[in-house]
From TrEMBL:
It is a lipid-anchor; GPI-anchor. This is UPAR/Ly6 domain-containing protein. Coiled coil: none annotated. InterPro entries: LY6_UPA_recep-like, Snake_toxin-like_sf, SPACA4/Bouncer. Keywords: Cell membrane, Disulfide bond, Glycoprotein, GPI-anchor, Lipoprotein, Membrane, Signal. The lineage of its organism: Eukaryota, Metazoa, Chordata, Craniata, Vertebrata. Residues 20-99 form the UPAR/Ly6 domain. GO terms for cellular component: plasma membrane; side of membrane. One of its GO terms (biological process) is sperm-egg recognition. PANTHER family: SPERM ACROSOME MEMBRANE-ASSOCIATED PROTEIN 4. It is found in: Cell membrane. Transmembrane segments: none annotated. Belongs to the SPACA4/bouncer family.
Length: 124
């Protein structure tokens, strides 16, 4: 019996394999993140990004990133070219390997608003 190889099999992927599925969190504080699920593009890995703003506020991001961006330290700018914190992305390459704790959206929004208020009140 003659076997016909599909394109995905010829590049080392089986029919059931595909892009990674990861958790996504656009902005979290400490270990509090409102997470959703996302599909990465081919060649991307799941990551957990951690940074610290003002030596007090721990920031966390989850998602997909190109493999060449793993383990790099990057500046994160939120407001008009002002560096808020440095971020390091730690990568992994299995489905949902960047697990994050989930919180209801209203809890995360309250925590975010409180943190931003404290930062603004404490600045000179």
């Amino acid at each position: 019996m003659k076997r016909v190889f599909t394109r995905s099999e010829s590049v080392g992927m089986t029919r059931d394999e595909g892009p990674l599925q990861c958790f996504r969190c656009d902005l979290g504080f400490w270990d509090a993140c409102y997470t959703t699920k996302t599909n990465c593009n081919i060649g991307e890995k799941c990551y957990t990004g951690r940074g610290k703003a003002g030596d007090v506020l721990e920031v966390k991001l989850l998602g997909c990133v190109k493999a060449k961006e793993c383990e790099l330290v990057t500046n994160v700018e939120l407001f008009s070219n002002t560096t808020i914190y440095m971020m390091t992305r730690h990568c992994c390459n299995t489905h949902f390997c960047n697990t994050g704790h989930t919180l209801p959206l209203n809890t995360l929004l309250s925590l975010s608003l409180t943190t931003i208020t404290i930062i603004h009140l404490s600045s000179p």
